[in-house]
Give the backbone structure.
Amino acid sequence: MFDRIDHVGVAVDDLDAAISLYEETYEMQLAHRETVESQGVEAVLLDVGEGHVELLRPLGPDTAVGKFLDKRGPGLHHVAYAVGDIDAALASLSEAGVELIDSEARVGIRGSRVAFLHPRSTGSVLTEIVEPAH
């Protein structure tokens, strides 16, 4: 079902400090920076192999990432898997009994189509599926 790991999402308080860590210490290249208003985040993608690390800074305390930071602090937020057909993947996952946060894909970073799966159905790991923009 999943083609590869697309990215690992990391929630951060200080985006510029996190970028410095990943660029200077880990020697990852900054690939993209974007504010995704619909998800309430400023997001940065850094290249690592064929995938990315996605750093997420909340736009406010009442956003999903803002609430995550308040409750858990900075750290691993989610794992995202690339799929070729997100609609088919959502249908298959739903049929298999996976609880979906998003029953339909929404627009994500770089024009991708994304949907989240509930941690109750995924071994306590917030899971995102991503159909990259073509």
Summary: The mean pLDDT is 96. The first strand starts at residue 4 and ends at 11. The longest helix spans residues 15-25.
